[in-house]
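Entry 14. Two folds queued back to back today. First construct below, sequence then structure tokens.
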Amino acid sequence: MGSLAVVRLRSAPPEPEKVREMLAAAPHRGTTFDVLVSGDVALGVATTPDRLEDAWLASEDGTAAAFAGALDNHAELKRALADENVI
């Protein structure tokens, strides 16, 4: 399973290098990193190329999210978001 890491520093700009260091500390979770900065937060996920991708980053209109694992209620969530005109 992939992993995720988040760094938020109140007194300094976000540090994507710190996110990469955190992800690298668990190579069994993945060695392919995807990192993004959104506002004062740096987010990152690690995956393994030879396994099913199970960690993602997304960013749009100033909002960002990181997810790792299995989403058990995908259909229910998709319907709820569609009902709210989010997707």
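Second construct, same run, same settings:
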Amino acid sequence: MKQSNIPLGRILGIPIGLDFSWFLIFALITWSMATSYYPAAFPGWSTSLYWLTGAATAVLLFVSVLLHELGHSVIALRFKIPVNRITLFIFGGVAEIGGEPPSAWAEFWIAIAGPVVSLVLALLCYLLQPPAATLSPLLALVQYLAYINFSLVLFNLIPGFPLDGGRVFRAIVWGATGNLQRATVIAGTIGRVIAYLFIIVGIWQIVVGNFANGLWIAFIGWFLESAAAAEVQRQSLHEQLAGHTVAQAMTQEYAIVPPQTNLQQLMEDEVLGHGKRCFVVGHGDLPMGLLTLHQISKVAAADRMHTQVDQIMLPLDKVKTVAPNEDLWEALKEMEEDGVNQLPVIANGRLLGMLSRDGIISFLRTLRVFRTPGALPGSV
């Protein structure tokens, strides 16, 4: 998502981004409103007015979605939970909450806040219809926004995790059982069942000839099923890594190359010869920077013979690092947010090891074999 994200600014300190997929749905909504919905509901307008009102509707729809996500975010911040970003994309929007709610009560209020905002917007647009009646384009806008915001409320309150209704349901189960993982599994299972129902309905619509609506409904079902499965898996992973530190999963098997190493020689000996993909540039346990295939690929083949690794490395002060005593789950989240596969483990300016996604997977396999995480040694 980060690579296809257009930053729009910040609200309440939260970065707001626009995914490139948004432009597709913006064009589809504008086209649909300008050529079908508004001509049928408000005949007699000029073609340009239909298109202008259609575009305004698409923009205001996503303003409504943004306000919905800000509702979640504001309550999350009230519970001292960071919000990494809000992204608008083809399915609407998502607020990336930077941690699990501290309690079922917090989960309930964070989840319900978005639908409450949409309901307020729907009621506001409904009350604006009488004064807007003298100007038909304005009336058309507030009528549609009242309808679509109320639809957002109904759709999001479907008890299918990870929709808002599914999160409300998870909060209720969590409060009743006192077990977040069990609540997530139950809510996620129901969410996947509802997602499969969407897919079935979508396929049925396609079979009976309603191809466009059927394809969209099936696509939403597929998205919900994938999201529910990912949330359950994420919660399971969180439970398994809880209480473990970076030092337990890091490896001390990493390649160190002197700063004057010739790039062409490095390619032949280490990348092509031994399949290595990441290198620490420095002397012994005193790192200067990090070199990956991404940096190497930026150098033309003809220039590699005359290029040293310290000329293209990422300096250590620009490399994201972790401490050995850092929580392993938090370190994994940092890797996901930054889109990296490995992090140097640094303490007092010295390199102690490398934490990689493969190393975390290997550590998880070890946990499952031993089944007694507390008995494991301090490093693997």
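Quick look at the second one. The longest helix spans residues 47-78. The two ends are 32 Å apart (CA to CA).
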